[in-house]
Amino acid sequence: xxxxxxxxxxxxxxxxxxxxxxxxxxxxxxxxxxxxxxxxxxxxxxxxxxxxxxxxxxxxxxxxxxxxxxxxxxxxxxxxxxxxxxx
Length: 87
What we know:
The chain is α/β, with parallel strands linked by helices. It is 38% helix and 26% strand.
């Protein structure tokens, strides 16, 4: 198994349908090995519950909206891959 050298970070807030589409596309269309981290900034549309059920990603569930920059910093602190891609 190839070791992950890339972290793909997704920051979301109240975008459940778009989050589902993005995750589906990443999993279906990518033949790269990467660590997937999704940060939810206090969604109330079911995104949090959806992310808690996903087993192929790391989810960070914020109780308040910390904003895009701080959410990405949470990912930096949690992962140690060589490359980082923020979506």
